[in-house]
Write a structure and sequence with these properties.
- With 185 residues, the chain is mainly α.
- The chain has a single domain, classed as Hypothetical protein af1432 (Orthogonal Bundle).
- Helices cover 67% and strands 0% of the residues.
- It is built from ten helices and no strands.
- The radius of gyration is 16 Å and the shape is globular.
- The protein binds zinc ion.
- The site of zinc ion (ZN) has 4 residues, from loops.
């Protein structure tokens, strides 16, 4: 196995290649890879996570769900541990959007410590994007709904990383001010 830093750079290279034709939903249509990089940065800079498996899984977290990558591809390149964490944070695209969202809430607390950290960093990045670089054309209600759902997922995994949870809570407070609190949760 390569050393940690090499592995992280290999994951970055691989994810950049796999996501190369994808864009985020913001007005500027930012390159998709900005998102997994931001997830890894939050893990490291806010969460103080120094564990290579978690950081690499953060970089790779959307490759199975959103690109042609399989768990076997990740296993061959990055080993069973990283591949298993990415699988844990991958939604089953055969299910409806509502079912996928519901299952994320229901199963969040059953995930490994690595997967919880990646999920938390992912929700942080998405809520921050909704505040700062919102998806083009999303009405207020949809933004509010996303934040409420992210909160429900994070609620189930509290206790995994205090600084990231506090960062997430501060973003949600900003979202409440910007979009109004969601009365349904
Ligand atoms: Zn993501």
């Amino acid at each position: 196995m390569p050393d940690g830093l090499t592995l992280i750079l290999q994951a970055m290279h691989f994810a950049a290649d796999r996501h190369r034709d994808q864009r985020r939903k913001d007005v500027q249509a930012s390159p998709y890879i900005n998102h997994p990089i931001a997830v890894a940065e939050i893990l490291c800079a806010v969460g103080q996570v120094r564990d290579v498996v978690t950081i690499a899984a953060g970089i790779l977290h959307d490759t199975i769900e959103d690109t042609e990558t399989t768990a076997a591809d990740l296993m061959a390149r990055f080993g069973a541990e990283i591949s298993a964490v990415v699988e844990e944070v991958t939604d089953d695209k055969n299910l409806s959007r509502d079912d996928r969202k519901r299952l994320q809430i229901e199963k969040a607390h059953l995930k490994s410590a690595h997967a919880r950290l990646v999920s938390l960093a992912d929700k942080i990045c998405n809520v921050r994007d909704i505040l700062e670089h919102p998806p083009d054309g999303w009405p207020l209600g949809r933004k509010r709904e996303y934040v409420a759902w992210a909160r429900a997922v994070v609620q189930r995994i509290r206790g995994c990383n205090r600084p990231m949870e506090e960062y997430f809570d501060a973003l949600c407070a900003r979202a409440d001010t910007a979009f109004g609190p969601d009365a349904s949760v």
